[in-house]
Each structure stands twice: as C-alpha cells, then as structure tokens.
Amino acid sequence: MHGLEHYMTDLIYQYRYSGLFILLTGGMIGIPVPDEFLMTFCGFQTSIGRMGYGKTLFVSFLGSFLGMNLSYWIGRRLGIPFLHKIAPYLHLNEKKIARAEHWFRRFGDKLILIGYFFPGFRHFTAYFSGMSKINYGRYAALAGMGAFLWAITFITLGRILGVHWQKITLMLHHYLARGGILLAFGVFLAYFYSMKRGRANIED
C-alpha cells in the first residue's frame, strides 16, 4: 500500500462514515483520492463488522453524488466563456469550441454513467456537463444512477473479497486506468469523426 492510500485508509479507519463521505466528495471534485480503493476497503470493513453495509453504501452514494454535482456547478459557473479565455493557450479557436460543445451536448450525457468506472474520466464528464449546460435534471438522474452503481459495485466487491481486497483492487485499478485511456481515445476519435462529418456537410 502506497503512502497516500495508507493515509486515506487510516482516516476512514478512524472516522469511518464521515471520513468516507468527505474523501469521496473531494475525490469527485478532482482532489487526488483513490476512490475505488477506499470503497473496496470500506466493503472489507463491512465484512468484519466495523462498518454497516447499508450505511456505507448510502454514504458512498451521497459523497460521490455530491462531488459530481459540485463539479457540474463549478463547470457551469466557469462556463464556456472561461474556456474561451484559455483557448489561445490550448490552441483552440471559436469554431473548435463550438463543435466540442455541440458534440458533448449530443453524446456527452451517455458518458456520465460509463465515466464513473474509469479514473479521471468521471471528472471530465462532470465539469464538461456543467460547461455545456446539459439539462441539470437529466444530469442529476444519470449522475445519481452512476453513483449508486459505482458504489454498490466496489463496496460489494470489497465485502466479497474479504482479506484479499487490496491485491485484487490494485490489479483492477490498473486495468480500469488503461480502460479510461482507451475510452478517452475512443471519445476523441468520435469527436474527430463528427468534426470531419460536419465539415463535409458544410462544404457540400
């Protein structure tokens, strides 16, 4: 177990539900927190009776859902105008930003659910959902569903794995991180294809 992971599990071991809630909320905003690792650890804690399964699941859902909502509203508050300000540093022009916004409005909400399961990707979907001003009711419903599925998956996994939770979780995290890279690459290709298609339609 690395230093950060050891420190985080110590916090949960000491503060249990409040520690889990604060860490997951912060992790969803973008603070470097090993979310899946912590939830699997908490699942293990439920298997030995130190934490209750139902309460752990509820707190995990609440913390992650709150974090995703805060990220959404931060993105919405900063908005596309903020992206326009930093666009020159990112080599973006007005047309590219407009196309990115259109693409995310068309396909982005489908990534909210999937993105939970890939480290780093869930932050992108939350912030850009806010920036793109995706309907909040739809976003909240998808974010809530994703938060529940994500929490129940890893807490149940930790409960089932018991003392083997750490080894399997580290292995799983490794593959999920790779999967996140592949998913991001797939999203980029889909965006690139949609831009080329849009350009072709304009030329026609």
Task: Tell me the layout of helices and strands.
Elements: H1 3-15, H2 17-29, H3 35-47, H4 53-86, H5 94-115, H6 121-131, H7 136-161, H8 165-203
Structure notes:
It is elongated, with a radius of gyration of 19 Å. It has one domain (about 5-200). The chain has eight helices and no strands. The longest helix has about 40 residues, at about 165-204. It is mainly α.
The largest pleated sheet is described as: none
Low-confidence stretches: 179-185
**Helical content class:** over 70%
Number of separate structural domains: 1
Overall 3D shape: elongated
Distance between the termini: 58 Å
How would you spell out the order of helices and strands? HHHHHHHH
Give a quick precis of the structure.
The chain is an all-alpha fold and 204 residues long.
